[in-house]
Amino acid sequence: MKQVCIVCGEEKRPNQFLKHKNAFLKDGYSICKDCANNLADFKDKESVIQVCQLTNLPYIERLVVDLVKSNDNVSFGLYMKRLAPFKRFETFRDSEFSEDGLNESMSKEFKVTNNIIQRWGDGYSQEEYAYFEAALKGLMAIKAATTSLELERYIQNVKLKDVLNKALHDGDFKAITQLRKSYNDDLKELGFDSVLNAKDDSGESLGQRIQKWETTKPVPDREEFEDASGIMKYILKWFIIPMRRNLGMADEKEVESLYDDTGDKQ
């Protein structure tokens, strides 16, 4: 299905359009990459801000300054690629119009140490390091690495996920299929198959296992028999709530329950 650019009026393929966040631009109408690149003149900051407003994407002053310093011909597409690792900037209302203000905000949130650089390698931005560390903590919260080799596998998995996210952001459909399969296969090898959302013929997900248990195990018909072993409470505290917290979906009460030892001992 082709789409129509609201700027030039031409009909083009979906992969020729921006991955914008303007909820009003839908039903086959969007902004093509060529028009976005032509409209955003990085020698004129206001034009870049206007394109960010139109696409509901964040404007980050430091990125614009860095791109202009290091590139002779900056495009809005290149800006979007550099924007991708900045996970905490989602829409235009998250924009930072002061380079100093952004650096001050970032420095308060996350510090890049020598250990972090040694773990992930050199050459990443502060936001990328912060994302890597958060993703690694998410895996460790589900199943802690017990050996240095296993930790190295976790690190590789996080980087693989980052490459997949960038392919999804760029709309690289050829790469997405292979990267998603590689990422899911890697999760299975690491023992994280239960966190996969999609069904897979090569293994059973947690949902499939529960479905099997429900058809082969007795279902309690009285309240006092429900979760008699405390397994559901254990799954809730050590799996579901940590996953919800990592995805930013947990409320304060759920987060507080992770640090409540009351009733944990049998």
What does this protein structure show overall?
The chain has 266 residues and is mostly helical. It folds into three domains: 3-105, no CATH class; 115-195, no CATH class; 218-266, no CATH class. It contains twelve helices and three strands, in the order E-E-E-H-H-H-H-H-H-H-H-H-H-H-H. Helix 7 crosses helix 8, helix 7 runs antiparallel to helix 11 and helix 8 packs antiparallel against helix 9. The protein is globular and about 60 Å long. The N and C termini lie far apart (58 Å). Mean pLDDT is 78; it is low at 101-107 and 196-205.
Task: Describe the structure concisely for a colleague.
The chain is built from twelve helices and three strands, in the order βββαααααααααααα.
- Number of DSSP E strands: 3
Give the helix/strand class: mainly alpha
Distance between the termini: 58 Å
The helicity comes to 40-55%
Count every helix, treating DSSP H or I runs of 4 or more residues as helices. 12
Gyration radius, to the nearest Å? 23 Å
Strand content: under 5%
What is the averaged pLDDT score? 78
- SSE ordering: EEEHHHHHHHHHHHH
Can you summarize the main beta sheet? 3 strands, mixed
Strand order of the largest sheet: 2-1-3
Low-confidence stretches: 101-107, 196-205
Q: Give the tally of structural domains.
A: 3
Shape assignment: globular
